[in-house]
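WARN retry 2 of 3 for item q-0093 after timeout on previous attempt; input resubmitted unchanged.
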Amino acid sequence: MKTLPRLLIMLLLLCHALPVTAGKRHWLDGASITLGESDDSDGTDVVRIGVQKRWRHTWFEGGAWYLGGYWDTELAYMEAGRGNTDDVLGISITPVLRFQRDASLSSGITPFAEAGLGFHLLSGTEIGSNNLSTSFQFGSLAGVGLAFGERGQYELAYRYTHISNGDIKKPNDGLDLHLVKLAYNFN
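OK item q-0093 returned
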């Protein structure tokens, strides 16, 4: 993937610039980089950089686990592999529900599971042999991961993501992506 070094530099600059505070609260809670590949015959490579903002509310807090969530906004670059020259840029916003163990009850490693359904806007409608028909797409995700570090500031997660236009227009080939996400939480 030819643009990976540029995206990594963008992520480093983003992580340096984002912990801007309004009073004592960060206006963004984290930054992430996600790498992966589609499971189609083209082997589309994916790189995403993102920012996260946690929701103020949590639910079912009385035991060892609770439900919370965050907004996940990402910029993506997708490049078709296996001899294709197609590439697509995208932006997405996804509300993500997260079921996780209370970090104060964990021994430095906190497991979580998450799911979300959001919106994607793409720069093109074809990537490799996949015809998405519209630039507007829906994206669903399911994932599992671990938070670790002194304050749980690091996260490593696997995500399965499906991108599709929901049959707004045909053909609707969609994309199924297997992704690994590394995130850093500022708080």
